[in-house]
Design a protein that fits this description.
single chain; five-stranded antiparallel beta sheet; Cystatin_dom; protease inhibitor; Cysteine proteinase inhibitor 4-like
Length: 115
Amino acid sequence: MMMMIKSLICLSLILLPLVSVVEGGLLGGANPIKDLSDPNVVAVAKYAIKEHNKQSKENLVFVKVVEGTTQVVSGTKYDLKIAAKNGGDQIKNYEAVVVEKLWLRSKSLESFKAV
């Protein structure tokens, strides 16, 4: 009986690192966003632009999400590249980092910059 318990403990120590692999990435690691037009991703991008506009007094208008990753932190961290225009027809790309905490129903803009 004691030998079986020791064997199970050893087996669990061997398998534990394998359990942390999720959808081709490590748990907690950044994963590429596959569907950039997903309504939640678009909502997060629009939130980032809205918050940036409030803080900077700019008037950026959302065009599309160009690329992005998500990472599970204390919530979901979105690293997004967003195409937006400012008044004219010229479109520029911006990098935004947003952390969303669904259980608190909150989002926060961590950074926003032109690239």
